[in-house]
Amino acid sequence: MDRVYEILRESYGENAKFREGQKEAIEAVVNGKRTLVVQKTGWGKSLVYFLSAKLLKEKERDGITLIISPLLALMNNQIDSAKKLGINVKTINSDNKDEWDNIISDICDNNTVDALIISPERLANADFVKDCLDKIKNRVNLFVVDEAHCISDWGHDFRPDYRRIVKILQLLPGNVPVLATTATANDRVVNDIVAQLGENLVISRGELIRESLAIQVIKLQKKEDRLAWLAENIEKMPGSGVVYCLTKADCDLVTDWLNENNIKSEKYYADISKEYKAIILDKFQKNEIKVLVATVAFGMGYDKPDIGFVIHFQRPANIVSYYQQIGRAGRGIELAYAILLCGEEDEHINQYFINSAFPTEKDMNIVVDFITDNPGKSISEIKGALNIRANRVEKTLKYLTVGDDIYTEYVNRKKGYYKSAKKWEPDLERSEGITAIRHKEMQDMDEFTKQKGCYMKYIAEKLDDVNAKVCGKCSNCRGLLFDETVGAETVQRAQQFIKSKFGVIEPRKQFPDKTKIESEFQFKGGIVLSNYADAGYGMAVQKGKYLDGYFSDELVDASVKILSEFIKNNNIEWITPVTSKRHPQLVPDFAKRLADRLGIGYFEGIKKFNAEEQKKFENSKGQYQNANDSFEIIQVKKENILLVDDMVDSRWTFTVCAMKMREMGSGDIYPFALANTAGRGDN
Amino acid sequence: MIYSDSAMAAILLCTNLGIEGEYKPLTLKEWNGLGKTVNDMGYKIADLLKSEFTKKLPISEKQKEQIKLLTGRGFSIALKLQELENKGIYIVTQFDSDYPKYLKRKLREKMPPVLFYAGDITLAGKIGIAIVGSRDVDDAGMLFAKDLAKKATKEKLIIYSGGAKGVDSISEKAAIDGGGYVVSFIGDSLSKKIRNKDVIQNILNKRILLFSDVNPDTGFSVGRAMNRNKFIYAAAHGAFVVSSDFGKGGTWTGAVENINNSWTNLFVWSGCVKKGNKELISKGAIPYVISEQTILDTINLSLQKDIEAYRQIDMFTTGKDEIKENIKEDNIIDLYDVVKESLVQSIVGEMDANDIAQKCNIQKGQMNIWLKRLVAEGKIKRNKQMYSLPS
Fold first, then answer.
1. How confident is the model at residue B314 (pLDDT cuts 50, 70, 90)?
2. EC number(s) per UniProt (chain A) (predicted)?
3. Which of A124, A558, B195, B321 has the least CB density, counted as fewest CB within 10 Å?
4. ipTM of the assembly?
């Protein structure tokens, strides 16, 4: 094994030394043992797999190490660090399709690649496996699973794609070496990984305490209080840092608020385009922004040594995520802050995530029955045939596919779903078991926020770190790091700010069957005042609809404020309400008051004669059909019209009404709704 | 599904999963030869997975290279197995306790080391009959096949079949419609077959078990279809030929092969005028027409003969370690083996099942099953409802 020192010194100089456990782990892997490395981030797990890859390559020229790692940011980061070791690492992912052929040829023909990194999603993608992995699969002589806590059901981070990895690990013959690495695994997760990888697993486990981190927990119930706290305190923090939010909507809000307060911020979540993400990360890396406001989509493995603070705008779901997220700060600096703000909505949002983690039994039964009776249907045919929200159909299909209950296959070039030969039984025990664990984890997190003792010690104990000890840095050890109160004036500004946020309603451009809606029959871009059930006006809308049967003057005021400019700019001369059978007066009454205040005409042009509620229909086809059957236009105006409803979700009601009104010769239709109820709450 | 090391060795060495023409899996002969070599040296098949192990073997360099390539594609196999499991297709190898025991006992060195399957594997351990015949069967033949399958089903016998058109599909359908069960060794692509709505429905209802001895993506070929005949015969306790051509065709070849190897007693429908049927009878097959006699009674004659085969030592089980490993894999304990001597001793003079059950303090239903086995093994004899020791 002297070669291992040689390589290390060639790259890091004569005095380079291994960290405790690194060399042992490499030796185990190279000798064909299955190995699990549990070490905190920054310990150098990638050195273990890169050096192992290199040594194995020297032993077996045709071989290649395959690394499964969940994050692209990580990949590029790591590929650079591998270069230092003289190791040629490539990645194949959805962003570099045009390079795939070259990379594969480098692997197969030129034999110049030591290791290949791919994401779990890729590995789970049947097309990718066929087109790409099939060509190199016979060469894989080391299989590395990064973030291996995800392969455990008990891991905090359930990901369907990792279930496929579990299957592959189970099916991997004993002669293929496996290296699993993670920064966070308690005993239960370690035991679970042992169960997957076999009893003979070599385990390397180190201490998890991060000495540079100073933790403080601050309880501020209201969102506006927490916004105010951010505005008053962030500039006191060293360098640049991250603010974690639970939802995309909150990321938007916090980013805009910080920028309004002249704190340079950018947001980062799943919906942001790849190109823009790269730009943001680059800015962040160079400390050109103060704050990166992110959901959990930002994270795992991202390596920036001088992150000065991590602030949680809401409480994360569990200790492990929390530990991982704060662990991004203070890697290469003496002191960094981890501030946890907790508020009134934390519990609600976390509950929502837990409860929507699995598809419902009902959805699964419907999908399985449909596929069994109709083998070979495409995903869009399935979506069209079932009265289930499209994103839920997708989720259910994915869950059933990784569970081997259904599968896809190309037959005559059509990709269709088929029922597998495995008997379908919803694995409720499993999903209920996991859900129960999630609730327990939430309780632990709650307990954490109530700690009187050292925060870091509590975390380390929850992670079964035998070296858990008092940190001497957190607010419980040392006294308050930051003020826990906020100025009334800042809070008021924050309140105003929340209320000034409203959303845009984009016109639908296609029918459910994908044929085009001619632009002259589409509505024009409209406005929605709030997010349903959100702080700000969302709550007032809810209360108005279900408690009072009357939308308050506060809502009229707020609407007038955002509409007065809007109607002027778009020459809107009329208001007409969408009527409802269940609440016949609610919207017309509100619209009438709105028209008075805006000083434009009011008329009732739409009649609803079908009693089906739109919200009973879950997918486009059903929603369109129902809307189309439900509304009759009794009167139109040739001038431009503001079409008012209380809630907007699928936009089919607006789409159908606008289309019918336009057909009868009305002016342009601009929709306005009080609250948006569409797709809340994921990352 | 978790495969043992020896099962994995069989999968790596004997299937073409994940291979695209660069090299070939071992032939059955090569596999048996290798198994013998490994055993004779005191090693186990699972050792083939150890790196450098092949170096120790007295085999050609070419074969060493082939084994190295085959066993070196572990990741590839894992992907492929995962893809198959996604479809509900699993593998059973000769080292697994689920492996169809009659195939193992009767075919021995001719048994397929690896079988792909979809459906309830426990069906393969059940007693049943084979119904075979040509694809282009006439109406009378169809009716006979149907009636025979129905009759067998009523007697709770499995139908072993080949999943082809004609006699195969008629008898399979009759059995399933009658509430019975089918084990089918198919001659075309298993992956393709399970995409069919009715097939998958029957599998999910546990009515049918499909076996393929080759990669599930491999389609029909004459050679493959011929090769699988032996599985159908060997799995069955009695095979019934509905109609056969003479001197040609799969039915004839399979039936003659069975006569030559004595896998199971061969019955030939004497109501069929085809020359093949007559010739098979003249070769020693038993003429058969459906009558009052139960099929169980008809085939029972042949059961005795199988016993010798049951006792044959299975392959690859000479080494000490291998025996230990087998115990671990064969985790099904047959209680019968534990109690049978006591049962025999409990019988004094002539007793009926009720008496014996009471004497041994167990349920009569279970006692009936064991008594039947004791009779089949010749340990006791039965006269109407009464059991006694053989004189």
1. very low
2. 5.6.2.4
3. B321
4. 0.75
Q: Where are the beta strands (DSSP E) in A550-611?
A: 572-577, 601-602, 606-608
The answer to whether A176 contacts B74, with C-beta atoms less than 8 Å apart, is yes
Determine whether domain A502-676 maps to CATH 3.30.1300.
Answer: no
Whether B348 contacts chain A with CB within 8 A: no
Whether A39 and A205 have beta carbons less than 8 Å apart is answered as yes
A126-167: per-residue pLDDT in tens? 777 877 787 788 888 899 998 888 887 666 566 778 888 888
Q: Could you read off the pLDDT of A296-345 as tens digits, one per residue? A: 888 765 778 899 999 999 999 889 889 989 988 988 899 999 999 998 88
CA atoms within 13 A on the CB side of A173: 28
Cβ contact A171–B78 (<8 Å): yes
Total number of domains constituting chain B? 3
Tally the C-alpha atoms within 13 A of residue B4's C-alpha that lie toward its C-beta: 21
pLDDT value of residue A197:
82
Q: CA of A172, closest CA in chain B: separation in Å?
A: 5
Look up the domain containing B223 and give its range: 116-307
Smallest CA–CA distance, residue B226 to chain A, in Å, is: 26
Q: Which CATH number fits domain A360-427: 3.40.309.10, 1.10.10.10, 2.60.110.10, 2.60.40.730?
A: 1.10.10.10
The answer to whether residue B105 is domain-embedded is no
Task: Between B137 and B255, name the one with better pLDDT.
Answer: B255
Tell me whether residue B121 is in a domain.
yes
Residue-wise pLDDT tens digits, A65-82: 999 987 665 566 778 778
Pick the CATH number of A2-205 from 3.40.640.10, 1.10.357.140, 3.20.20.70, 3.40.50.300: 3.40.50.300
Q: How far is CA A19 from CA A16, A23, A183, B210, in A?
A: 10, 8, 15, 55
Helices (H), B113-215: 139-154, 167-177, 190-193, 197-204
Judging contacts by C-beta atoms under 8 Å, the chain B residues touching residue A404 are 85-88
How many C-beta neighbours within 10 Å does residue A389 have? 20
Residue B216, domain CATH: 3.40.50.450
Would you say the pTM of this structure is higher than 0.80?
A: no
